[in-house]
Each structure stands twice: as structure tokens, then as C-alpha cells.
Amino acid sequence: MDGVLQLIPAAKVGHIGLYRDPETLQPVEYYCKLPSDVPERELFVLDPMLATGGSANAAIQFIKDRGGVNIRLVSLIAAPEGVDAVHKAHPDVDIYVAAMDEKLNDHAYIVPGLGDAGDRLFGTK
């Protein structure tokens, strides 16, 4: 977020809080606050790691449900399975990734990956 705000200082910021249920691997929403003018904006969904695509798909759908149409997904690292899932669910959304890793493992973690983004950012593990 900080890097994007340095590039686009006048950007409005929304937040969609999701976590992945460890049993079902499905996204669970805990917070959603978006600018009121979503339908008129160019929207960038920032997701540090695109693994299964579940959280990204849910976030994109939340935005579409609020009238968003000009949406892009930006991730640092991705697995092919996640890119495929987002393309299938939202073919109108362009995806930008800095690196594409090999695959997902049995726990739906990116291989080789970087570890959990939330844990790395907040020091929770």
C-alpha cells in the first residue's frame, strides 16, 4: 500500500479484510470499507500473494457488488492456480504480478513462495 500511495498520492484507499479459513480454504470477510465513488474510479486490488485466488475473487466480487467496473489485480507473487481461478471468475479483470511461482502445495501455499504475507507483515508466526 505504501509503495502505491507514493506512486499515486491522491488515491483514495478502501480496505477489504479477509482471511482464509484453514479448514475450508475459503475466504472469510471481517471488514469492508470502500470509497463512496467506487463506480467512477479506476480500482486496484492489492493482494501481496495470489495463491488459490479465493480471497482475490471475493474482494473483486465485493467491489463489483458496489458498482465497481474498472478493476485491476496487483500481486507481488502468484501461483498459476490463482491466476487461472481469477481469470475464470473475472475475465474482465487484468492481473499484474511481479513473479509467478511453480504451484500450490497440499495446504494451498505457494511453492516455493515467501511464507504467509500477514505473518511476515505483522510478525504473528
Automatic annotation (TrEMBL):
Keywords: Allosteric enzyme, Glycosyltransferase, GTP-binding, Nucleotide-binding, Transferase. Its cofactor is Mg(2+). It comes from the Bacteria. InterPro entries: PRTase-like, PRTase_dom, UPRTase/APRTase. Coiled coil: none annotated. Pathway: Pyrimidine metabolism; UMP biosynthesis via salvage pathway; UMP from uracil: step 1/1. Its EC number is 2.4.2.9. CDD domains: PRTases_typeI. GO terms for molecular function: GTP binding; uracil phosphoribosyltransferase activity. SUPFAM superfamilies: PRTase-like (SSF53271). Residues 2-124 form the Phosphoribosyltransferase domain. NCBIfam families: PRK00129.1. Belongs to the UPRTase family. This is uracil phosphoribosyltransferase. It comes from Anoxynatronum buryatiense.
